[in-house]
Amino acid sequence: xxxxxxxxxxxxxxxxxxxxxxxxxxxxxxxxxxxxxxxxxxxxxxxxxxxxxxxxxxxxxxxxxxxxxxxxxxxxxxxxxxxxxxxxxxxxxxxxxxxxxxxxxxxxxxxxxxxxxxxxxxxxxxxxxxxxxxxxxxxxxxxxxxxxxxxxxxxxxxxxxxxxxxxxxxxxxxxxxxxxxxxxxxxxxxxxxxxxxxxxxxxxxxxxxxxxxxxxxxxxxxxxx
Length: 225
What we know:
Blueprint: H1 3-14, E1 18-24, E2 30-35, H2 43-61, E3 67-70, H3 75-90, E4 95-104, E5 110-114, E6 122-126, H4 134-146, E7 150-159, H5 171-179, E8 182-188, H6 189-196, E9 200-201, E10 204-205, H7 209-222
Parallel strand pairs: 3-4, 3-6, 6-7, 7-8
Antiparallel strand pairs: 1-2, 4-5, 9-10
Helix pairs in contact: 2-3
């Protein structure tokens, strides 16, 4: 596992973004872990988060693209932080773009924030986490309605590795099959378990045998095939 992935797992734990216990998800599933990107709230956290996204995007998609699109609302700070990190780490200027939930009819009119999309633009979409793929169902037509662009891929922070809404495949695999572009994550839950299982971090064992059994049982029921 790459060092930045190990550091990112520690960063999620330190930021209390990734928690372990008993949680009820929007889907109604009872999960032994929960990831909330809304817990990244400080400038230092957002700067580091942008750097991890930038490295993962560089690894999976290179830098041969023009626009980083972050769907409202959580995708807005992600796209801003990551375009800044790409500039600082790689000296590459990428434009950021996000959508509004409501179309603005005065001043800077339209549905987009940041850069406008232009015909021929190559776009990478950035999100926090994709559990079911529902958000892409909303985002994809918005992007395609603005210009004739090429979507190179989707990057999320954590692949929960559970099946999506329409098949036994994971949500990221469903997205790739349905829309025809790649979908990747900085880390997967398998990475998290591999790195934290029975390992003391900051004096705490976050995934002990009991929690490991709960995670295994969760994936036995909801895991992607």
